[in-house]
Design goal:
By secondary structure, this protein is an alpha+beta fold. Helix content is 32%, strand content 35%. Strands 1-2-3-4-5-6-8-7 form an eight-stranded mixed β-sheet, sandwiched between helices.
């Protein structure tokens, strides 16, 4: 278990996977994840299983520290043990809990999870750098990453197609200080 100020990051449970599948298929969240098609239980189970068995990809559950409610997922992919870097990804799926309990999500659980997990990557996994990709239109996520110390390192021009138009994808990173 990895404890932050507002969140706890822990291993996935079988009980949590149906809730995560619901988040993955939530039409309101698809613009932020890039998921186009509905995801089946079979596909989802295989995806979770592959993350659990992979040496280069890891997936964790984010919980609200106070209530122990599942909030979303966070993980690493493309873990490069030679160059000591990995790509971070996060998805806060429990929008209903956030809006009902903390006035529209003002608790900043995403920032806390990113800060906490990035620190874990540097201090416990001995990574030198953590990077990520974010859609340019996802201003809230960009602010979250900046708050955690990530800086824009590059731009993939017109790299993502959504709602009838192309948008840039920002590459952000943070190195161990």
């Amino acid at each position: 278990m990895i404890e932050g100020t507002k969140t706890v990051i822990c291993g996935l449970t079988r009980e949590a996977t149906p809730e995560i599948l619901k988040w993955v298929n939530d039409p309101a969240l698809k613009p932020y994840t890039g998921t186009l098609y509905p995801v089946s239980e079979f596909e989802h189970e295989n995806w979770i299983k592959n993350r659990a068995e992979s040496s280069t990809d890891k997936l964790f559950l984010i919980k609200d520290k106070e209530s122990n409610t599942n909030l979303g997922t966070i993980g690493l992919k493309n873990i490069d043990y030679i160059n000591s870097n990995a790509e971070l990804y996060i998805s806060i799926g429990n929008i209903k809990f956030l809006s009902e309990n903390i006035g529209g999500g003002g608790k900043r659980v995403g920032s806390d999870a990113v800060i906490t997990f990035t620190d874990f990557c540097f201090t416990r996994l001995n990574l030198h750098k953590v990077y990520l990709h974010v859609f340019e239109s996802n201003k809230r996520a960009i602010r979250c990453y900046e708050k955690a110390g990530y800086k824009v390192e590059g731009r993939l021009v017109e790299h993502h197609f959504s709602n009838g138009k192309y948008e840039d994808v920002l590459v952000m990173g943070k190195t161990k200080s």
